[in-house]
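Final report, closing paragraph on structural work. Over the funding period we assembled a curated collection of sequence-structure pairs, and we close with a single example.
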Amino acid sequence: MTKPNGNADLLQPKPRISSPDVLAAEIIEHLTYGIGKDAKVATPHDWLTATILAIRGRIIDKWMESTREAYRTNGKRVYYLSLEFLIGRLMRDAVSNLGLMDEVRQALVSLGVDLDVIAELEPDAALGNGGLGRLAACFMESMATVGIPAYGYGIRYVHGLFRQQMADGWQVELPETWLAHGNPWEFERRESSYEIGFGGAVETNGGLDEPRRYIWKPAERVIATGYDTPVVGWRGARVNTLRLWSAQPIDPILLAAFNAGDHIGALRESNKAETLTRVLYPADATPAGQELRLRQEYFFCSASLQDILRRHLQQGNSLASLPDKVAIQLNDTHPAVSVVELMRLLCDMHGLDFDQAWDITWRTFSYTNHTLLPEALESWPVPLFERLLPRHMQLVYEINAKVLLDARRSRHFGDQEIAHISLIEESGSRRVRMGNLAFMGSHSVNGVSALHTELMKQTVFADLHKLYPDRINNKTNGITPRRWLMQCNPGLTGLVTEAIGPDFKDDVEKLRPLDAFADDPAFREKFAAIKRANKERLSNLVLSRMGVRIDPSALFDIQIKRIHEYKRQLLNIIEAISLYDQIRSHPERDWVPRVKLLAGKAAPSYHNAKLIIKLANDVARVINNDPSVRGLLKVVFIPNYNVSLAEIMVPAADLSEQISTAGMEASGTGNMKFALNGALTIGTLDGANVEMLEHVGEENIVIFGMTADEVAAARSDGHNPRAIIESSPELAQALSAISAGVFSPDDRDRFSGLVDGLYQHDWFMVAADFDAYARAQRQVDAIWTDPSAWYAKTIRNTARMGWFSSDRTIRQYAADIWRA
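Its predicted structure, as stored:
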């Protein structure tokens, strides 16, 4: 028998050949011996799994090579901590990035299987909600593409957020069962298991001449076990790891209780552990919901940090070198508890004193802020935090004392400034401010667009910025062009390659030569034909899912986002009502046929967001069934928005709705996806729209509405929304129709709260921006009636969007923040 490492050649598998015939043979082998099916009776799902296993083997070769290289060089690693990773389907992504699309397609054809058919069967991984999670997925792919050794850390949700269905136009939340039949992409890592504690008490020891040591004795313990998914970079140059944590009880069953007949009680600990990783963003309107969310965040942060320290020390590194070898990026405030958890591990488990540990901690972490909404900067009631994490509460107070004393002495901060930077919110009930904790505990704090970063300095972190003036910096978000152009829009990718060559596939900023083709009538015609084909695909999806016929020759006006009042789906719907009224009142006018398509999920406890979904569906029901409209306007809300749906909707869009209240959208990445795929943007000067305006040119984007400064001034001065509404006949009429029950004859008061909110305070400036938005939409109509002008503008959007690649963003993180 060969001893381990006795023959290195035997321990290194030979690289796999990837010709179609070899791939076909491997698919059959996996089908037969991995799944236990004969090809004659195999189902499409069997073929999907067998194909994934064949592809996976080639990924593993590169994955192990990447891991060995990282250990060999012992360079700096990046760890990306995020509560969400909205990775979508992986098969097509992996095959494309490996450069094997043609070979796999030919292999399956030889077996009588259609790649496109089985690819559609792969479930979307339910690991995120919206832009935050999709950004994390784009960043992971780009880190692998640009050659940065990285791990992503998150939670392996069994059900994720929820699967959205409609019942009489209302959102209904159902469990997402993406793991019901297993996940062939993941690998359980039992050796990467860590104990996580909650509750209990803190004891101290140490004499008068000895340093005091703190010993946390948790009342509850669970085990976090890692599940690894490979993340393939472009051309397979590097494969990184997404490690997701699953919770398991230490004692799965209390056997004595079970044998005594208490069958439910016997499984109590098991159920409690499994609850930790069952649902993304459990509703936090109740104390139990808040506790579960804090438990989830601490669970994945503690497991991740224990894993990071184990790997760091395993390679012979010292704790003092942690900032030189490790960069930990906090994706929003959800992982902010990592700051105090690392302090606990360094002080209590590894014996460092507080000052040593703090110096290591803040130099290791960096923090990305994604919101200016105070309610989205998480905070936790002090009693809850102290009961659940008693040792961490002690460290929060100790960190706070250190920082506040320094602010008093070195910066001469007054009481008001101290109150703003403190980790403890004192107005009302006392709460632990996680945004402030992430800021204090990081050497870098970045915004995600130029406007957002400047507003951070002026608003939510003004006093912390004064205390640490060198920490805030900007890293404008980006998207991976592999998924959001090459994979989701192969027709356009082929046309671009034919026009300017393939270099843009390796560097998307080399799309710029396409600009010259905007004035080429033959190219515009081909570009329009590809857009038409993408619209036909979406039309077929809408017909099959919803039974609604939409005309691909109409202008496809699309808004796909998480449903939130600041994103202003309500503004879009009210304008649809106004347009509906005008079409009926003025049938003699030459109206542009338009289909308004919306999709997105509302948080289960967000009443107004769910009302907006209901209003969209009620308005759609009335408009779509009114013969007097003559098919000139249709409204469609497509349920269960996810990555796979976005991959169909984005290439089909003619008009991209980016209409958030100025100063409230941190960046947006949907705006980038749409523009890259040849859509015209209608939007406010908010988030990355500002930078998109600079890159695509003001003649190739439609901007309207109040600026962030104007919004802030209107709020502080007290604007009069009632006067605004009464001075706008179209707006007043649309709101009157909603209030009168035109769209809700079964319940005339259903939307009274939404309408009253606009009359009374209009916090999100829906009424204030309505007339400007309506004018901008008629400007869009005018452009649409000249196809040459329309496609010239949209081609220039595609050509000029290269800067918004996540590869560029990641290189900036690596150079300026991670030093990786």
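The domain at 74-89+124-476+812-818 is CATH 3.40.50.2000 (Rossmann fold). The first strand starts at residue 77 and ends at 81. We thank the funder for supporting this effort.
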